[in-house]
Amino acid sequence: MEILEKLEKKYQIMLPKTYKRWFIEGGQKNDSFIGTDIDEPYLNELNDWAKELLEDSGSEYILPENAFVFAMHQGYQFMYFICDGHDDPEVWYYIEDEPMPVVKWKSFSDFIHESV
Questions:
Q1: CA distance 34 to 71
Q2: Residue 30 confidence (pLDDT) above 80
Q3: Is the separation of the CB atoms in 42 and 36 below 8 Å?
Q4: Domain holding 58: CATH number?
Q5: Does the pLDDT value for residue 93 go beyond 80?
Q6: Which domain holds residue 90?
Q7: What's 74's DSSP letter?
């Protein structure tokens, strides 16, 4: 899918297979994600928005260069994974005013199963 290729080029990453499959199959269109910026119009901006949220919250945490923020909910929490070659990477979660993100799901698949 063209949007995924553009994102990989922009961020110089390889998106995980589970994320690509979920995206291509239209998983982001599920009603479970109402209020969450998770689909195409937002994907180009989410990493920047996440960095702004960290800064505004006073966090000293810096997103790794190979991080891909795939969802932001209501502007005060976001989810991302590290693009390091794993097909089904763990998902990190950040909520406003916390010092740093935490691993909340052991895999992207777990995130999807819990979310829908």
A1: 11
A2: no
A3: no
A4: 3.40.1580.10
A5: yes
A6: 2-115
A7: T
